[in-house]
Specification:
heterodimer, A: about 250 residues, alpha/beta, Rossmann fold, B: about 325 residues, about 80% helix
């Protein structure tokens, strides 16, 4: 089954064309990396997929459901999760509360006013287990804004995967991280269940080639190349853009 | 653990003090304490919006005023029994919240503030202008206190009536902010876009918070109408809304206990200052400026800072 279909999606901001007709298909369980220089439109494409930006034209489908006009929260309940390029957490909440919110998200609209203590303990246990599993053991009672930047990036990822999404969008998960922190995040992504579809924006070529099944290269709002590592490395246009021999 | 024990002891002591108060002070101060508790309910209801959901309303007096006018109109104009008018007023205020919320929630930030302000001023102008119904700015005197098998006409019985309702309201609000719903409100305050990305229908939560806050504000308004045995358009006026905002900010938004304390302090100061000068609103403005400059997170924020500094040598 196709996890994600992007069909001729365009986006204009006033007179500026951010996306000039992008078509993309990602199959279930695939790991796809989006490459491209700054301003290529990668993050705008992510926004149209996650719903925070409405496309000017085209169509987007998630596991066969047309989601082009769905609000972001509805897309999330269909199994889509994302991280943000600029860390977007709950600065004044504790790590535990943040993970509890992420766990409640999939069923998130019951406006639950009462919660039996047993259920709360079960959910808290699950949250603590997630934090242990993803290298944030011991951070549960801390306030998010007091975490280090590296820990915040990790938490960003934990919040996105807590609800076990079917499609995960990662927007530069290693941006601004030290080499040690980067390899920790790469290891986290590699440990995710293999049937979880992942689309990821990444600037670091090594990270991209390490994680990707297939790579799509964007430039000036267009898709200019698609294929596996060998195909991308061999592509003249891609090397021109990245090495600047134009 | 000790923190919890201290808090429990403080609550028990405060309750014991409040229960004994009518034996300790002159009736005038029993009345003043009653007013403090009424405004504590009002300020805590606004805290649900401002402190927990991150929505700054400058029109919260609308729901307060609707609660007050509802008991007055139902009993004095339409002859409804007082014991029915009281719950009906709570329903009226809640319904007002449900009607205003979809309009107010079209905007965020200072635009939300302006819309709530404008909506409450519309209600104020109705109360002010519709003389045949509301007596305009003369207001409606003679609002009888309800009787639920025991008379509430004396200062002390009414004090205890308000004490019980304020305690129940505080308990309900604490339960709300500690529930998964309350946690979601705090998440929305911190980041709407992250909450949406996690699958939360943010609007529904904000709507629910707005309506709940309206219900509690209506409770405070109805009690205030009983307290004064009078309603007037100033109950709905922007100064009433601003006073509530200052109570919340002075005490510390997002803490419930802070706004309750803030309400007590403002009511006390208003009483004290008004006995000397008629420029109370000027004093209120100075208090606001001082708080935003020196205690932006309110008195509770100051106390927390102090405790943290002592904990770290």
């Amino acid at each position: 089954m196709t996890a994600l279909v992007v069909e001729n999606v365009t986006k204009n901001f006033g007179g500026v064309t951010a996306l000039a007709g992008i078509s993309l298909e990602v199959s279930e369980g695939e790991r796809r990396v989006l490459l491209g220089p700054n301003g290529a439109g990668k993050t705008t494409l992510f926004h149209t997929i996650s719903g925070s930006v409405m496309p000017s034209g085209g169509r987007i489908a998630l596991f066969g459901t047309d989601i082009t006009h769905h609000r972001p929260d509805r897309r999330a309940r269909l199994g889509l999760a994302r991280t943000f390029q600029v860390t977007n957490l709950f600065p004044r909440l504790t790590v535990l509360d943040s993970v509890l919110l992420a766990l409640g998200g999939a069923a998130g609209n019951s406006l639950q006013l009462l919660e039996p203590g047993s259920r709360h303990r079960r959910k808290a246990d699950e949250a603590l287990r997630l934090l242990d599993q993803w290298g944030l053991a011991g951070t549960a009672p801390r306030v998010v804004r007091n975490l280090s930047y590296g820990e915040q990036r990790q938490l960003e990822l934990v919040l996105a995967i807590a609800g076990v999404p079917r499609l995960l969008l990662l927007d530069e998960p290693t941006a601004g991280l030290s080499p040690a922190e980067t390899s920790r995040v790469v290891a986290m992504v590699q440990q995710l269940p293999r049937d979880m579809t992942i689309v990821m924006i990444e600037h670091d070529m090594d990270v991209a080639f390490e994680l990707a099944d297939r790579i799509a290269v964007m430039h000036q709002g267009r898709l200019i190349a698609e294929g596996d590592e060998a195909a991308i490395r061999a592509n003249r246009q891609v090397t021109d853009i990245y090495l600047g021999t134009e | 653990m000790t923190g919890r024990a201290v808090r429990l002891a403080a609550i028990v002591l405060a309750l014991a003090f409040l229960l004994a108060l009518p034996e300790l002070v002159r009736p005038y101060y029993v009345g003043l304490a009653t007013r403090m508790m009424i405004f504590a309910i009002f300020a805590m209801s606004l805290d649900l919006l401002l402190g927990y959901t991150g929505l700054a309303s400058l029109g919260h007096a609308a729901d307060f005023g609707v609660g007050a006018y509802a008991v007055a109109l139902l009993v004095l104009r339409w002859g409804v029994a007082s014991a029915f008018a009281f719950p009906a007023a709570l329903i009226a205020a809640t319904a007002t919240g449900a009607l205003l919320a979809p309009l107010a929630l079209r905007a965020r930030g200072s635009y939300f503030l302006m819309i709530t302000f404008a909506l409450s001023q519309v209600l104020w102008s109705v109360a002010f202008g519709w003389r045949t119904l509301t007596n305009g700015d003369d207001g409606m005197p003679g609002v009888p206190r309800p009787s639920f098998g025991f008379p509430l006409d004396g200062t002390d019985p009414f004090y205890y009536f308000v004490l019980v309702l304020a305690a129940l309201a505080a308990l309900a609000l604490v339960a709300i902010v500690r529930s998964p719903f309350g946690r979601a409100l705090r998440g929305i305050r911190e980041s709407e876009s992250r909450m949406q990305a996690l699958g939360y229908d943010v609007w529904r939560y904000q709507f629910a918070a707005f309506v709940l806050a309206a219900g509690f504000a209506g409770l405070a308004g109805a009690l205030y109408a009983y307290f004064n045995r009078f309603v007037g358009p100033e109950y709905l006026y922007v100064i009433q809304s601003a006073e509530a905002l200052i109570m919340v900010i002075l005490g510390g938004a997002g803490t419930l206990v802070g706004p309750a304390l803030g309400a007590g302090i403002i009511v006390f100061l208003e009483d004290f200052v008004s006995s000397m000068t008629e420029h109370w609103v000027l004093v209120l403005g100075v208090i606001y400026v001082l708080v935003t400059l020196f205690a932006p997170r309110g008195l509770i924020g100051l106390v927390n800072d102090f405790r943290q500094r002592r904990a770290e040598p």
